[in-house]
Amino acid sequence: MSSFAAITTTPTGLKTLLPICSALSATVWIPEKIADVDFPDDVSVRSYEGALNVILPNLWLSHDGLIFGLATGAVVRLIAPLLQDKATDPAVVVVDEAGKFVISLCGGHQGGGDRLTQTISHCLNAAPILTGAVNRSALPGVDVLGQPFGWHKGSGDWTGVAAAIARSEPVQVIQEAGSDLWQHQLPSDHSLQLGWPEISSSPPEQPSPQARIWISPIRRRFAPHSNMPKVQWHPRVLWVGIGCERGTSQALMEDAIASTFQSRHLATEAIAGIATLDIKGDEIGLQQLCRDHNWPIRYFSAEDLRVVPVPRPSGAVQQAVGTPSVAEAAATLAALQSSALLNLSDKNDLSSSEPLLCTAKQIFRQPNQRGAVTLAIAQAEREFTDRIGHLSLVGIGPGSLSQITPAAKAAISQADAVIGYGLYIDLIRPLFRPGQIVESMPITQEQQRAERAIALADWGLNVAVISSGDCGIYGMAGLVLETLQARNWNGRQPTVETLPGISALQAAAARIGAPLMHDFCAISLSDLLTPWTVIEKRLHAAATADFVVALYNPRSQKRIEQIAIAQRIFAQHRQPNTPVAIVRSVYRPEEAIVLTTVTDMLSYPIDMLTTVIIGNRSTRIYGNTVITPRGYGVEG
Questions:
Q1: Taking the model in full, what pTM does it have?
Q2: What is the dihedral of CA 242, 269, 390, 122, to 10 degrees?
Q3: CB 519, CB 561: distance < 8 Å
Q4: 3-state secondary structure of 454
Q5: DSSP state of 185
Q6: Using CA atoms in the order 255, 258, 263, 266, what is the torsion angle rounded to 10 degrees?
Q7: pLDDT tens for residues 381-412?
Q8: One-character DSSP codes across 508-574
């Protein structure tokens, strides 16, 4: 998760920044002279003495983004001495004191400034100011394209390719590895040419590309003065299998990897990690190698390795360690596991696996280095991200963007991927940004949504799972957590956050007055997951106990009798003139509200977009409002 600092020097600026700090979990920095005020419990506040430029260098180095509630000119002068490189500088965003404009000042792409600006603008209902030319194309920036998937940037003319995209010129994309999920979200009028032109007897006319993007584990050498700008991303798909003699030096392993990758024209940036035999866990050279390069290491037992078919098994290795292959077998197993294609408990999976080795084993020795290294390389179908995934379980309220909490908006706009029911996805589409993965599924595929979201988070993505109303009230939160529990989730990977929303009963109640001022309950009439006999018992209990009741999912095209049964039950226990509110598509353009009674409630249209609120014995209608007295004894 990103870390943000909000900085201001005035009480007005502080007032504007506080909602942002709450939504983004940002720390607000203010001078001591204005620190003597009450702050919300969910906002972290730090004060400083003296000039702001004294503390700014530390904030610059320790945060992913800085949000200033100051004049733009003042911010420019403050950060000018700190600017180094757009690849390492944090995002810098400026918010005017009135909270009407949010400016992406620097670090727009690689620093995430444009994304942060859009998130803040949603929180404040302000106008985002994005001056980068690429924003017009609704395409992800070429220099951040692979960030969600953990790709490493290679060489190339990044400015030249970005300029070609900004000019809407045709840019060819050759992707030989890594996730193509980003391609599924491109606008229909994009200027990217995906893949090589089709070869046919009469190929369609296609303009010549003016730039090229390579996405591959191969390291290509670009001519320094080529007329066509090119760049390359390296997805981390290569698993290096290593076997070694006891005490082999780190230097020899480094040389073996460098020599092999150079001869095969492979990019070391595409290395996902190292794989080896479990008894090598105490090899100092191997441990130092992985530590210095921040490579994960996967250990496999001899039992796991010996069943892997390899091109060059060794009897000597079999006799020494109990498996005919270490390097080739370990690289293959790591690649299969990384691609989520293999469960080690099912060895039969190996028989149907495609060959993954792109480099057969080679043995390396050097006269001046201790030991010997056997090395092989396998390519996974799915890249390694090296990130801890995150699940945001988000309630989007009744459907209007104005009814979504700032924290929920921030979670949606910051997410790498958004998963939800198609109708709800459409309702929040203005919150999406270029390059974001957005996947919608039918209303009956809740379990599939939960599993897909967890799979993406397990992979390392930041995923928002959306539900209408509150995600914890007949929403996706419970199902996602149940699914995690069934998979023996450790509570840490992925991390999970639940962000509440305005529930349907709250939204409906707000539109009709104050019907929920006394004890109330909610009952869903859908019997897809709950037996009708159980639902009917709950209806009788709620009616007998004189609860105000909100009925969810009251009637579908096929399920038409349940609402009639519910009406008869309440008619037995309530006066005929007991107020009933029928609220359909609340806070949406097609909103419809009917105030009626228990006796007449079935005379009006009721469907799955409707919430029905049935009053208790004290509920009354006054004008166009429904009121349930709390019992304060107010005299008229």
A1: 0.85
A2: 180
A3: no
A4: helix
A5: G
A6: 160
A7: 999 998 999 999 999 999 889 899 999 999 99
A8: HHHHHEETTSS-EEEEE---SSS-HHHHHHHHHHHHHTT-EEEEES---SS--SHHHHHHHHHHHHS
